[in-house]
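W.,

You were right to be curious about this one. When I first looked at the sequence I had no strong expectations either way, so I just let the prediction run and decided to look at it fresh. Below is the sequence, 316 residues in total, followed by the output.
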Amino acid sequence: MATAKNGIRLLLAGVIALSLSVSPAPFVGDQAIAATSVVAVVNKTAITSGDVSRRAAFLRLQRKSGNLQKLAKEELIEEALKREEIARVGMSVSTADVDASFARFAASNKMSVEQLNSILDRAGVTAAHFKAFIAVSMSWPRLVNARYAGGASSRLSNQELVTRLLENKQKPVTTEYMLKQVIFVVPASKKGIVGKRKAEAEKSRASFPGCDQAMQFAKNYLDVSVRNLGRVMEPELPPEWKPLIEKAKGGTTATRVTDRGVEYLAICNQRQVSDDVAAEIVFRAEDLGKEKKEGENPNSAKYLEELRSKAQIVMQ
């Protein structure tokens, strides 16, 4: 079964683009899925016949063949396991990240968000179902990487590191960043003030005094927190922050809206490094890139199987 390999490297990349823009699936409508019944329970999460119908319609847009009802149910069971674990660990991407990905997908297919919403509704998928899929697709790889990062399965042995260094003839060079995170907090009950907080955060960047005075700087604003992220190598930068860090001018990145509020990063220092630690991180990033090109990260299947073995899955 196909799964997400790199955040929003969606299953439907390319294929669904053609399906959506040229030959959308026949109208399904809400009536076809109005009468729903529970078809499976994963721990305490119910999967309904309506869920299966929406996922089957989604698979149809991807030009999948075979028993789509069965395939849809299997995918939804796996997603339920993943979603529960993502929530337990607290590593879900933000609603803003999902909405931004949804909008990028629409734009890449020369559609507005409204047009994509309409097409998904007509196809019987719905935007909500697609966004739920995006959220898991973006969150799960991060969780897998975090779970196995630094473990025996992901670290290079001394012999492997020496071998790679000899093969390269010189140690790879990468950029090391010292980062602080500035968060203009927006409570969940006050999402209506996001625009105001974003303007406030953007304006504050011009007067950011540097990392040494960051805590004192935060005291000048209401509900602003500063987190010390420490040293981060370039290959370890989160994908949502990496382009902002690389384009940063004046010591701070542009702002991002997240579930916590409005955030930006302060680049306290950056330098080129070429030591054993940096070499291992670069080599691991290269290996991960190869995995993404060649197929699914084996740790993903391993993690999922572990969750399945502990789960209570009841088929109705």
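Here's what jumped out at me. The CA atoms of residues 176 and 233 lie 5 Å apart. And, maybe more interesting for your project: The longest strand covers residues 261-273.

Coffee later to discuss?

I.
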